[in-house]
Predict the structure of Solute carrier family 12 member 6.
Amino acid sequence: WFYQDEIKERPRVATLIGALANYTNLSQGAKEHENEEQGKTKQMEAVKMSTIMGVYLPCVQNILGVILFVRLTWIVGLAGIMESFFIVLLCCVTTLLTSISMSAIATNGVVPAGGSYFMISRALGPEFGGAVGILFYLGTTFASSMYILGAVEILLNYIAPIMTLFGPFTGPENRAALLNNFRVYGTCFLVLMSTLVFVGVKYVNKFASLFLACVVISILSIYAGVIESAFGPKTTELCFIGNRLLKLSGDMRCEKFYNTTMNSTIYNTYCTTGMVGNATQLICDPYFAANDLQQLKGVPGIASNVHKDNSFAHYLRVGAPITTDRLKDNPAADVQPPELGTGYRTWLVADVSSSFTILLAIFFPSVTGIMAGSNRSGDLADAQRSIPKGTIGAVLTTAFIYLSSVVFFGTVVDGALLRDKFGDSIGNELIVSIIAWPSKWVVLIGAFLSTVGAGLQSLTGAPRLLQAIAKDNIIPFLKVFGRGKLNGDPTWALLLTCFISLIGIIIADLDVVAPIITMFFLMCYMFVNLACALQTLLNTPNWRPRFKFYHWTLSFVGMVMCITLMFISSWYYALVALVIAAGIYKYIEYCGAEKEWGDGLRGLQLTTARYALLRLESRPPHTKNWRPQLLVLLKVDENLQPKHPQMLSFAQQLKAGKGLTIVSSVLQGNYLDSYPEAQAAEQELKKAMEANKVKGFQQVLVSQDVSQGLSSIIQTSGLGGLRHNTVMFGWPHGWRQNPDPKNYKVFLDAIRASSACHNAILVPKNISNFPSRNDKLEQGTIDVWWVVHDGGLLMLLPFLLRQNKVWKNCKTRIFTVAQLEDNSIQMKKDLAVFLYHLRIDAEIEVIEMQDSDISAYTYERTLMMEQRTQILQHLNLSKRESQREVSEWKTVHVKVGNVVQRSRSVRFYSPNKTASETDQYTTESPRVAPTDGEDTDSLVSSSSPEHHVDTNGKETNQTTEPPSDMDQSQMTQSTNVRRMHTAVKLNEVIVNKSHAAQLVILNLPGPPKGSNESREANYMEFLEVLTEGLDRVLMVRGGGREVITIYS
């Protein structure tokens, strides 16, 4: 009963454990689908697979493939035993380190469909996961092309050469016919295999065991043939002219003469009769004439010394003849007699150039396939044990097979035959097959079926990988490929896979397709290692893999090896792969759906942010690093939406400083009751920020008092050294019409709180007139009125605004005010030098403010301001008293009119003028009172004393109060008059100079100290007068420190 309330909302432990025990997110298998189709009500539980059947053997089948049978002998012949061993070892070590990293990731939780994509995306985030997932998909798809081309090569070259469709295809001279045969038969194979995959994966799985058995039997047959060669060489003979390997076709025999008198077919190929002068002479190829024909055993056996000749590299350029080190030749001129024509030479030449890097790129796809076990984690009896053991065991087994094969091929087969890629010198025989025991057909059939099986596995796995990516919906345009048949088979993804695989088949050259696969798989393996290293270094609480034999250094070395192999193999292919990955990454980041998978990259961001914040906290920022870190205070309406979203647009236009932006709002009420509203308001702020392209953070505070809430936000927003230094909030429009002083007290309290925290203040007035982010001002100026030095913020703001496209075409003008004692000419020169050092382009103008008499209009505005203030203080009176005050106000208003009428014929003394200066008479006509809610209807009667003006411009106050109060009132009135005079005169100058400006930026005077309501209302009135008649105004108050410097 103690936890009764919690049990209603939270599950019991038994319920939770039961749900987790039955959890699966794997797609339904073929067996269960068969049961559904047959209407069976009770489905049979699938038998879970062991380590051998579920991981080890599938990995072995995927790793051992076409390269072992059709290219490894060629690689050994060109690179030699030493370098070939190093190539294989380098590739195997890379996959071993990747297997260790993958085992750690795979045993840190369930890995459903998607395999490596799932692991990488959940470890590095959707952007990296999507990019690497697409690359892995492309690699797997092109691997199907490679396997199909390998199967066609084995079928056409070694099993049934009679099936050629384009005539002879052997030899470099017939290479075009060979590739065309590959394209036609490869397309046919692709259609048949895709149809089988479409019909049902269950048929592919049933044949998988047969294909695996063929691979195992073929390898055992090769080993048996190597052992047999120790007892005697094979009967295969090679024919050489000098040391150059010859191709014998038709009835050719390795002899120059038959029975020492009859010319052989080879002799007639290289020699002919021709007229030299008037005589007939025998004309032969120079090299043929200088060298004899010789024969060597093609497979001398393991007991021979052939390994000495095969130990080191024999790289060839395209067109170079294939030679052996076991024979010597006599040099001869490399010319072809014109009488013999062209194309008569039958010695074999290299069809492609070779080097260590090229052979490395061709071989690496043969060691891929280590993900086969992790992709089946849901079908394993104990995935946490089976995946590491099975995968690492398969890598070690296949590494032993490859390394031993390199040694055996180099010690059993002649080097020239190894370099004969297609076995043209021995009648188009597969070199591996002639080693095998008891028959070559064991290897030929086994190699053919194994390549077909590997191709089927690729065509089965690639669409499911694409389907997993599409279902995650991180790449919107791939969403269609997440669809499939009722049993979940990816129909649309299979079609796309077939199309991409067809591109590889059209290329038709196995040696060109293999490096493409190498890049894609190396990229994938690199990110697997990176994910493991990152998770290990971050040591997040959720990183608890059951596989313990890993270390971040091993993952880091594996990652570096993958990157190195990419650029060693082919730097331009590597760049293309990186560009594709970067493009997919940016696309997902920009257009993809937001996913939060708790990935390691986010953990890295948190760790980096923590480190950076601690570093920022250790020392204050330098002036050169100052930038506006904005705290934008927004008011929300009754629908919890921002009342003035233009504030966000203006904040976005100021973001050239690349600083922090925090958007905040305060809701009045109790937090416990208003929590849902606060969350909804925060979401509305987020939407508004996204609509205005403002990148930053949003927060909503619930407080009983709005002023206290704003003060709390200003004090506590930010974290450590990453705090705001500039506060922006709007002008309280309509404050005159509202008799409640709270309407503008919140505004003043925000100014005081910001100043107390030494924050700069930005107050945009008439914010609804400001341009939006989609506007572009074609011309105009940004006018800065520099009255008081504020640390340089007034200079910096126009520069930041002009970095945005909205204000880019505007020019900057700076106005500064000179007093009587200032030298305006020198001020302009000094200011020009100052701006030059600040690297700011602006027009400069110095305004000389004449100390003129106080106008009647000034006094009228002052008097009406004071009347309004005192009237509003009496609005709490009773209705009867209010009515009486209204009648009394009429009398006061008549007196005010009389005073104003008299003031038009009387001059006013400036408080600082001398007696001689008062002789200069000046007449100023009064200005029209502002229309912003300040008409006579808004004034209510007040019991304030009457004000009179004597002929000397002195204010008198007819009242019955004591003399001390009278003196204080006179001082206050005199101060108000001076301030109003300054505001009016400055406004006249600003309107005169900047009436056509796109934006006017000026200093914001400090608010009055204390909480005197009359002084606060007067302050607001002064600001209204100062900015009257201006369309867009930005009032700025510095934070008390320099924000701009002339130093670099």
Observations:
- The chain has a mean pLDDT of 78.
- The radius of gyration is 45 Å.
